[in-house]
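Working notes for the structural subgroup meeting. M.R. asked for a predicted model of this chain before we commit to crystallization trials. I am recording the input and output together here so anyone reviewing the notebook later can reproduce the run.

Input as submitted:
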Amino acid sequence: MGITERVENCLCVVVSEETGSISVAQGGMLNRPLTSSKLKELLLDKFSPSVDGDTVAPQLRSLGRRLSIKGLNFLGFVQRKLPRPAPQEKK
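Returned structure, recorded in token form:
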């Protein structure tokens, strides 16, 4: 979380090794706990290309798309590593 306080455009995804809970740090603030679907939504919102494309330099127009793809690939990786909850017994 400390890096997000010092680096302006930094988003840090944190996954607990013990519990598998997902958190996101940004601007020194910790958003937790997150579900994998909420993390996906947050990453898509953060890294989707903006509507106002004219203000973006031509070489940077596809950056949001590339980051979204990498974010989704990372999310898939995280989902595969998370422990699956045990099925609950019916009483």
